């Protein structure tokens, strides 16, 4: 067996030897401490946007409690001197079972935003799922990733023509899969954002994919759907937010852009068009006709929906509750995993996101049938703390933690991880 090029033991040695020279780790290893440090670097609004969930945030709690329902039973005296954490997914050999979740508006967190994440992922060979609500257009992120794998997340808008355009762009910039987020046809009741009365999209943030899309830009010249409006109260906050919105709009000349009215028209059009509550299973046939790339449905929590995904010719499922941001009181994503895996019966790969915080979480997910897991808030906190280096550190830490957990449980590769190594907690 070829030794995995990434080595948890080597990383441990580098960290401990660095300590002998007074060099401290780039980011904290414990998630709670990681969040505490990141919070100090972020504005109140930015932290609320990243850290918050829906309602009472009970779904976020459920995501963590679900992992506690299972415990690992390590096996001894197995040769694990050479460990391989690589996986195969949609015909690609990946160095680890990790991907990065699509998370929007990363400019709130760090000036390099999506570009820093793209560079970090490329350095490790970890697939990055480009967010539909990104701060940097997909072509620029793909440009710094080269041959490193990247996918595209799609929010299905009210315009099928825009959906078609986004998919075509994803194909042209080398994306190897399309991830359709199903659980955000409307924004959930996100109390931390509501407390701050803060929605970054109204300031022109997180809409880079739209402002770089020819179909969306053409739609700005067409009559727009009527939207709720209130008479603006002119004060310093209004002016400051208007300046931000105008500066986010492409092109030169602040006053030229302001007089055109296009920056605010773009924001209004985005709010009107970005989601489509009327979507049904029948609409998936349109998507299937648009691309030969693998299509994964993100947000599946019910086994009947998993079976419908199979019936509609979908290529994969991401079990997810959007990190607890959409439905308060929902089932923990990990708690839904077994039933989804059983429903698809290995016909298509099942991935998991929402609540992954350690190598042990990852091991449990793979033991119950997930082919890979997606990391969300942890890498965003790494981005807030140290930019690209922070993202790389967080992802390396996950890889190392998982590799050691796997080896110490008696497995030398992914194929040896099974449900027999877990037991229900008493």
Question: Would you write up a description of this structure?
Answer:
Helix 2 packs antiparallel against helix 18 (377-408) and helix 17 crosses helix 18. This protein is an alpha/beta fold. The chain has 18 helices and twelve strands. It has two domains: 27-192 and 276-424, Aldolase class I (TIM Barrel), CATH 3.20.20; 195-273, no CATH class. It has helices spanning 8-20, 31-41, 44-51, 58-68, 113-124, 138-145, 160-172, 191-196, 208-211, 214-219, 236-248, 254-260, 262-273, 284-290, 303-311, 333-344, 359-367, 377-408; strands at 70-72, 87-89, 92-94, 98-100, 128-130, 150-154, 178-181, 295-300, 316-319, 350-352, 372-375, 422-424.
Features:
single chain; 426 residues; alpha/beta; TIM Barrel; 2 domains; 8-stranded parallel β-sheet; 18 helices; 12 strands
Output the CATH class name of the largest domain: Alpha Beta
Average residue-wise pLDDT: 95
> Given the helix and strand composition, which structural class is it?
alpha/beta
What is the rounded distance between the termini? Answer: 38 Å
Largest beta-sheet details: 8 strands, parallel
Question: What's the number of domains?
Answer: 2
């Amino acid at each position: 067996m070829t030794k995995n090029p990434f080595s948890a033991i080597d990383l441990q040695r580098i960290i401990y030897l660095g300590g002998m020279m007074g060099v401290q780790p780039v980011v904290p290893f414990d998630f709670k401490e990681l969040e505490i440090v990141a919070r100090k670097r972020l504005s109140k609004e930015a932290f609320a946007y990243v850290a918050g969930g829906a309602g009472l945030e009970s779904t976020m709690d459920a995501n963590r409690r679900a992992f506690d329902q299972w415990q690992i039973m390590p096996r001894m005296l197995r040769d694990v001197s050479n460990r391989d954490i690589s996986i195969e997914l949609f015909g690609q050999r990946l160095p680890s079972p990790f991907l990065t979740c699509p998370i929007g508006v990363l400019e709130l967190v760090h000036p390099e935003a999506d570009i820093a994440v793209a560079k970090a992922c490329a350095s490790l060979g970890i697939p990055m799922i480009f967010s539909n609500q990104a701060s940097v257009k997909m072509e620029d992120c793909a440009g710094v990733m080269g041959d490193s794998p990247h996918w595209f997340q799609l929010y299905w808008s009210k315009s099928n023509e825009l959906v078609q355009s986004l998919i075509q762009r994803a194909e042209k910039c080398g994306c190897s899969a399309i991830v359709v987020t199903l659980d955000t046809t409307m924004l959930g009741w996100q109390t931390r954002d509501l407390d701050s009365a803060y929605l970054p999209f109204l300031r022109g943030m997180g809409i880079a994919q739209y402002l770089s899309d020819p179909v969306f830009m053409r739609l700005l010249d067409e009559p727009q759907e009527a939207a709720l409006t209130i008479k603006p109260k002119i004060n310093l906050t209004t002016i400051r937010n208007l300046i931000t919105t105008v500066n986010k709009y492409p092109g030169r000349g602040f006053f030229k852009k302001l007089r055109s009215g296009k920056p605010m028209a773009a924001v209004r059009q985005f709010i009107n068009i970005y989601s489509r509550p009327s979507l049904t299973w029948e609409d998936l046939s349109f998507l299937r006709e648009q691309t030969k790339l693998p299509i994964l449905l993100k947000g599946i929590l019910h086994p009947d929906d998993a079976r419908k995904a199979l019936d509609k010719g979908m290529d994969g499922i991401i079990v997810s509750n959007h990190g607890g941001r959409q439905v308060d009181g929902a089932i923990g994503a990990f708690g839904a995993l077994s039933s989804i895996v059983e429903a698809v019966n290995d016909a298509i790969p099942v991935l998991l996101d929402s609540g992954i915080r350690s190598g042990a979480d990852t091991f449990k997910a793979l033991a119950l049938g997930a082919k890979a897991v997606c990391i969300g808030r942890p890498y965003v906190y790494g981005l807030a703390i140290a930019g690209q280096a922070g993202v790389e550190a967080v992802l390396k830490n996950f890889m190392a933690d998982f590799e050691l957990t796997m080896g110490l449980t008696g497995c030398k590769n992914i194929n040896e991880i099974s449900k027999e190594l877990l037991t229900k907690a008493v």
